[in-house]
Amino acid sequence: xxxxxxxxxxxxxxxxxxxxxxxxxxxxxxxxxxxxxxxxxxxxxxxxxxxxxxxxxxxxxxxxxxxxxxxxxxxxxxxxxxxxxxxxxxxxxxxxxxxxxxxxxxxxxxxxxxxxxxxxxxxxxxxxxxxxxxxxxxxxxxxxxxxxxxxxxxxxxxxxxxxxxxxxxxxxxxxxxxxxxxxxxxxxxxxxxxxxxxxxxxxxxxxxxxxxxxxxxxxxxxxxxxxxxxxxxxxxxxxxxxxxxxxxxxxxxxxxxxxxxxxxxxxxxxxxxxxxxxxxx
Length: 281
Known about the structure:
By secondary structure, the protein is of the alpha+beta class. The chain has helices spanning 2-68, 83-102, 154-161, 166-193, 253-268, 271-280; strands at 106-110, 114-123, 126-136, 142-146, 198-204, 210-219, 222-231, 242-246. 53% of the residues lie in helices and 22% in strands. The chain is elongated.
């Protein structure tokens, strides 16, 4: 009987560690499923974009044929399409582009001077914020007014894509905005639901691409302090590219191993989901 009692604590800790591993694996699988769903949505949007480009090419071919074929089908010297035909083609292309973007959280409407876009952001099926972008199309495409936060590199993105590929411009801008609000959402969820584990104040900048905080972990009736620094090097991503988790130098080897495991988990799983898995374990 005495031998059985002596083995009981180690058996409990082994069971807890097994539960922690299973919880981590479940969190990673859930994240992978969500990434697959996002990938499927992007593929559908890509298919729609390819169809749109096909229609645009066909429209250009139709315009050229109208300008080069006579009433009896005789080839005429190359001629420029009429201004009205070009205008109709532009309007048709804009409308098709608006239908395409609706699938990716971007909507828009034609205005007297151009087009107004609305970029909606969301995370885990939860609507977060919308940002507006009013563009002028004459004499060249330019930003008239917008509600994009100042720390989003809008000018840099516009300089690179606005004049040459407006679809690419909106897609990249949407990626930046969605990643920003998703990083902010994760930090908010951490403060809201896991404040009892956080030691002190969570530090973050406006873009939420750098988070620094401390949290407590209880193990074998003792509490250990972990220090965290998360750096988001890819501003179009909601997961950190660098996650440094450290503990006291005199902490047991098992605690140091846990800190290393948490570091890897933070790079693979959303911040609040990682903490939820800690609680489950």
